[in-house]
Specification:
Number of helices: 3
Radius of gyration: 16 Å
Strand order of the largest sheet: 1-2-8-4
Number of strands: 14
Helix content: 10-25%
Distance between the termini: 40 Å
Structural class: mainly beta
Shape: globular
Amino acid sequence: MTKKTFFGAMAVVTAVALTGSALVASNMGFKLNYTLSAPGAGSNSGTNTLALPDNRQTGMADAKNLMDDIGFASVTNVQKFLAATDTLTAYTGRKAGGTAFPLLAGSGYYVKMATAVNYIVVGSDDPAVAYALSAPGAGSNSGTNFFAYNYHQTAADAKALMDDIGFANVTNVQKFLKASDTLTAYTGRKAGGTAFALTPGEAYYVKMATTVSYTPSHY
């Protein structure tokens, strides 16, 4: 199943609303209160995007750990984007529910909720970590990467993110609109849409023309 078909048929990708945040421990540490919405409660389908920190709390190694930390009964599944095939794989934690895939720094995930939860995300970002953003045929099918927006990144909107990565290397940045279960894209070119704001805790699609090892600018 292609990403386009999956989005259209299943309507599964939903963005998360940021409800508040506070920095703790150090200038790179944080504690984020983040709303994961259920169907009809700020979300059409109940599936939310989630960006986790580089350094997660102890015991947060895989999809099962994430479900347990949120509250297992509240979560229907966790989904991972596979750049090599432009598809999603899901872990439900139930019978025949797939493999609890590892959680990786810089990778966004989808969390489909049965009930809404104000999830406290705890961890820190590492300003030395570089993320591989792959072009078509270089670890990615279409050049689309699902990027976990860094909590202390200086890029405030889609244009700033493209500039920080290297504008000529990026085809577009895409954001999911949870109210309609659709994607909106910003290209930075003529008639290329609006440079939407970036929200800590959300994940975004970054479509690359060339491969870049990206170290985000931080404050």
